[in-house]
């Protein structure tokens, strides 16, 4: 399954595409951040984000789009920009005939790290392990987009029947790192 994860934001919108196989193993297809100038009018900023998302959809042909569910924040202007970017992402996916889903940050963190209150570094570390990347995906918006894509694929995929099938991919990656003597990120 090819999943496009989108971490919506008006200034930085993270996008990440992963291929997830039946055994829940995953590989990186694309990762990036769509940036819009903070001094541009909101409509132009949203158009910039829309062009970037549309280009990713066209180039990488995902089967489903997972978007971070907007949650209340203390900064009203931040939550408004995030909600607007989220709406653009969902609309573009619908126009392309793609299935969409939203996931809360705590759902994504729990799926990736096993801990719903994990910090950004823990999420980046586990995304890098699961996707077998040489470096942590940066910035955090890009890592969050990849985490969203992985979360969606894993939550929708049945557990494999193999002996290790009871573990989530994040738990398997953690256990494999421990076997190799690498220390797992602290909670």
TrEMBL record:
Entry keyword Hydrolase? yes
Q: Which residues bind Mg(2+) 1?
A: 7, 141
* Enzyme Commission (EC) number: 3.1.21.10
Q: Which residues form the active site?
A: 7, 68, 141
Q: Region labeled Disordered — which residues? A: 160-187
Tell me which residues bind Mg(2+) 2. 68
Q: Does the keyword DNA damage apply?
A: yes
This entry's comment on the bound cofactor is: Binds 2 Mg(2+) ion per subunit.
* PANTHER family for this protein: CROSSOVER JUNCTION ENDODEOXYRIBONUCLEASE RUVC
Of which family is this protein a member? Belongs to the RuvC family.
Q: How does it assemble?
A: Homodimer which binds Holliday junction (HJ) DNA. The HJ becomes 2-fold symmetrical on binding to RuvC with unstacked arms; it has a different conformation from HJ DNA in complex with RuvA. In the full resolvosome a probable DNA-RuvA(4)-RuvB(12)-RuvC(2) complex forms which resolves the HJ.
Q: What is this protein called?
A: Crossover junction endodeoxyribonuclease RuvC
Instruction: Quote the gene name from the UniProt entry.
Output: ruvC
């Amino acid at each position: 399954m090819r999943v496009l994860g989108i971490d919506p934001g008006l200034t930085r919108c993270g996008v990440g595409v992963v291929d997830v196989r039946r055994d829940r193993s995953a590989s990186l297809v694309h990762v990036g951040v769509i940036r819009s100038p903070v001094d541009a009018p909101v409509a132009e900023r949203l158009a910039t984000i829309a062009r970037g998302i549309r280009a990713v959809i066209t180039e990488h042909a995902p089967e489903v789009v997972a978007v971070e569910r907007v949650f209340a924040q203390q900064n009203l202007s931040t939550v408004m920009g995030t909600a607007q970017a989220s709406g653009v992402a969902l609309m573009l996916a619908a126009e392309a005939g793609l299935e969409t889903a939203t996931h809360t940050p705590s759902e994504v963190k729990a799926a990736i790290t096993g801990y719903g209150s994990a910090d950004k570094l823990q999420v980046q570390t586990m995304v890098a392990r699961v996707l077998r990347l040489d470096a942590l995906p940066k910035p955090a918006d890009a890592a969050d987009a990849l985490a969203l894509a992985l979360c969606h694929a894993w939550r929708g995929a049945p557990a494999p029947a193999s002996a290790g099938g009871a573990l989530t991919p994040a738990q398997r990656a953690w256990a494999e790192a421990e076997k190799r003597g690498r220390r797992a990120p602290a909670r």
